[in-house]
Structure formats: structure tokens, C-alpha cells
Amino acid sequence: MEAKCLKINLLFCFSIIYRGISSNYFSGELPATLAKLTTLLEFRIEDNQFSGKIPDYIQNWTSITKLMIQGSGLKGPIPSGISRLRNLTDLRISDLEGPEDAPMPQLNSMTKLHT
């Protein structure tokens, strides 16, 4: 199933607080409509086959507490705008493709980091 299928399901669901699509073998780029999910508290896409870089729009998810993108197929670096996520306490980012020497944005509220 391609990630494009998600676009159809999320067009009118902008008040979602949890989006978990882990281990579903989804592929393709994450749809831009996810940018509008500004009330997200938890986003889990680990163990999929997405392509493209980590989208800059995650900086708009200012309520998010858990972001789990390990093994998702996304490429780094982690966008610097992630430092705007003041409620983010749990970030799981292992297995990201991309430069290993990219700087890690400052995350003051972080209590769990899995790389």
C-alpha cells in the first residue's frame, strides 16, 4: 500500500491526537496533509518503508509528546524546527538514513531518546 492512500483518509481529520501506522509496510513519501494535524500528541510510523526526508512540517505539531520514526525509511537530518516542540518527551529515531555528522537540534523537554 502506498502512502498516498493515507492522504484520502486524513483530508478531513485534522483534530486527530494519535496517529499510529507502525509495521504496515507503507511506502512513498509522507503526505503533506499530515502538516495540518497540529493537535497530535503521538505519531508512530516506525517499521515502514517510507521515502524522502523527515518533513519540516513536524515543527507545527506543537502538542506532540511522542515521535516514533525509527526504521521508517525516512532520511535525516532531523529538521532544526523540531526544537520548537516543547512538549516532546519521547523521540525514537534509530535507523534514519542520511549524514551521521548532522547536528542534533536542542530538545529541552526530552526525557527519552532512542537512537
From TrEMBL:
It is a single-pass type I membrane protein. Residues 96-115 are annotated as: Disordered. Residues 106-115 have a biased composition (Polar residues). Coiled coil: none annotated. It is found in: Membrane. One of its GO terms (cellular component) is membrane. It comes from the Eukaryota. Pfam families: LRR_1 (PF00560). This is Uncharacterized protein.
